[in-house]
UniProtKB/TrEMBL annotation, chain A:
PROSITE patterns for this protein: ABC_TM1
Keyword match RNA-binding: no
Topology class, membrane: Multi-pass membrane protein
Keyword Transcription regulation tagged: no
Identification of the protein by name: Raffinose/stachyose/melibiose transport system permease protein
Pfam family, one: BPD_transp_1
BP terms from Gene Ontology: transmembrane transport
Cell location: Cell membrane
Automatic annotation (TrEMBL), chain B:
Primary localisation category: membrane
Name of this chain's protein: ABC-type sugar transport system permease subunit
A matching Pfam family: BPD_transp_1
Keyword Translocase: no
Membrane protein topology class: Multi-pass membrane protein
Length: 277, 290
């Protein structure tokens, strides 16, 4: 009797937890398609009868906010930051893993200590640095900050992985007269794929979802990311829940779609890579 | 080293380290420098103030309260998420039809921004939100999830737990799958029951996943900012201000740049000391157990 029951017992714990995790998203999605009166009357029902797209039409593009512009800014900032981080940090990590001298050990220590710095701590002086360079309120400023801030994490992931690869690989190529730069890009970099995948997924999520840094660095007027854009847009509506739900759905849709198609890569990248690092 | 190689290495190494120095290390040095002056952030001149900012911050009741709130959220959220994470991972670690479904569901909350998730919860839990409307229809009094100082801290803590538990479950699952089954065979022969198996094999063998999950939750909660900004703006009456929230608030809205720099230095010291000791302790624990 007990043996037959056991495989189902775990669902008694896991199902309620799944519901608790999913219900807020369910509420956001179904209510985004309802009128306000309908939300107040029956907040949990599916919007079968009075389905409306008005909330989306009204809140996607307003005089002060345009979701498509926000997507554009977020895609630009995330992709440029992540590509540059992967290119620069994988090369740096190769040097850290293959060469040892005092200068590099000091640099490595300085990098690792950067892992612990909370972003809010450096915002105040960073604003002064960016202002001096004329990069305040520009996407370039935010991209440079993102790179500086995530160098420690990215190097940490890559160094751990490169150290597990045999040196014989690069030495055999060296006999053919290739420079270290070519050896790295032609032979080593393709082998780093698991580490690259982990780094890319983490960095994309963090940079795409980032809130306080774009709020401060991009300021409130000229450009905004998806996150800071909906923050400012919702600020105006405050308690018009139907608009808030529509904005949240619009803001989350890109990540949700990506996750739908790449679940396995997401989960593998976020768990395996980080455990090894 | 061949001369040619040196150039190659320098070329590969310098761009990254230069950006790191300019946008992370130099700001840290500037932060420390500002904290010894009396600059409001705007006026052209300012003068040396010695340790006075630090002395003032040390006696600042609001900062002490923010530190208390931050430590409360950190300790409760870190413990709760790890206990729940291990328990649910053990449940999930049997091959079953739904395992992949659960795994995908658990992961999901962490993927979305704290801002989006925060707004959803705000619409549900705030005074005129969906949950309170429901309570009223049922004839129950509305609950001040964000309006009552104590409850507001608990609500933020609950939401921190809610958003991270799924991710930590998946971390522990990966850890569980790396435990060789042969270890269990041996103790089963000795007649160990399920709890004994967990205590003597599962939990010790999870040490690397434990280290990672604790550090992840600890560092994340110590810099708690987004949820506070979205849900309560630090209120009511500063009851939910965390140290990260206060550093930004004082630095950018109160025009007391030097003073907020000294708060930031305190925060940096507290966070670094605690993270380093926690990491060292957990790494030693790993070595002892594995």
């Amino acid at each position: 009797m007990r043996r037959n029951f056991a495989p189902y017992a775990r669902h008694l714990f896991l199902m309620p937890l799944s519901l608790l995790l999913l219900v807020p998203f369910y509420i956001a999605v179904v209510n985004a398609f309802k009128t306000r009166a309908d939300i107040l009357d029956n907040p949990f029902s599916l919007p079968v009868l009075n389905l409306t797209l008005d909330n989306f039409i009204r809140s996607a593009v307003t005089p002060s906010f345009n979701i498509f512009k926000a997507y554009g800014t977020s895609i630009l900032i995330t992709s440029v930051s992540v590509v540059l981080l992967v290119v620069l940090c994988s090369m740096m990590s190769f040097v850290f893993a293959r060469v040892s001298n005092r200068f590099l050990s000091v640099c490595y220590l300085l990098l690792l200590s950067g892992l612990m710095i909370p972003p809010q701590v450096i915002l105040i002086p960073l604003v002064k640095v960016l202002a001096k360079l004329g990069l305040m309120f520009t996407p370039q400023g935010l991209i440079l900050y993102n790179i500086g801030f995530y160098v420690p994490f990215t190097v940490f992931i890559f160094v751990g992985f490169i150290r597990t690869l045999s040196r014989e690989l690069d030495e055999s190529a060296k006999i053919d007269g290739a420079s270290q730069l070519t050896i790295f890009w032609k032979i080593l970099f393709p082998l780093l794929r698991p580490a690259t995948a982990s780094a890319v997924i983490f960095l994309c999520l963090w940079i795409w979802n980032d809130f306080i840094n774009p709020v401060i660095i991009l300021g409130s007027t000229k450009s905004y990311t998806v996150t800071t854009g909906i923050y400012q847009a919702v600020g105006q509506y405050s308690t018009n829940w139907e608009d808030v739900f529509a904005l949240v759905v619009l803001a989350s849709a890109p990540i949700f779609l990506l996750y739908l198609f790449m679940q396995r890569q997401f989960i593998a990248g976020l768990t395996e890579g980080s455990l090894k690092g | 080293m061949v001369k040619n190689d040196r150039w190659s290495y320098a070329l590969m190494f310098s761009p990254g380290i230069v950006i790191y120095f300019c946008f992370l290390l130099i700001p840290i040095f500037l932060l420390v420098y500002y904290s010894f002056y009396d600059w409001d952030g705007l006026s052209p001149s300012y003068s040396f103030a010695g340790l006075s900012n630090y002395v003032e911050a040390f006696h600042d009741k609001a900062f002490a309260r923010a530190l208390q709130v931050t430590l409360f959220i950190t300790v409760v959220a870190t413990l709760a998420v790890n206990i729940l994470g291990i328990a649910f991972a053990v449940f999930l670690n049997q091959k079953g039809r739904m395992t992949n479904f659960y795994r995908s569901v658990f992961f999901f909350p962490l993927l979305l921004s704290t801002v989006s998730v925060g707004f959803i919860w705000k619409s549900i839990l705030s005074y005129n939100g969906l949950f309170n409307n429901l309570l009223e229809q049922l004839g129950v009094e509305r609950i001040e999830f964000f309006g009552n100082p104590d409850l507001a801290v608990w609500t933020i803590t609950f939401l921190a737990i809610w958003q991270s538990t799924g991710f930590i479950i998946v971390i522990y699952l990966a850890g569980l799958q790396s435990i060789p089954g042969s270890l269990y065979e041996a103790v089963k022969m000795d007649g160990a029951n399920r709890w004994q198996q967990f205590r003597h094999i599962t939990f010790p063998m999870l040490a690397p996943a434990f280290t990672m999950s604790i550090i992840f939750m600890f560092t994340g909660s110590m810099r708690e900012y987004d949820r506070v900004a979205i849900l309560t703006s630090g209120g009511p009456a500063g009851a939910t201000e965390t140290i990260a929230y206060q550093v930004v608030k004082v630095g950018f809205s109160a025009n007391r740049l030097s003073y907020s720099a000294s708060l930031a230095v305190y925060m940096l010291i507290i966070v670094s000391l605690l993270s380093v000791s926690l990491t060292v302790y957990l790494r030693r624990r790993e070595e002892r157990l594995l």
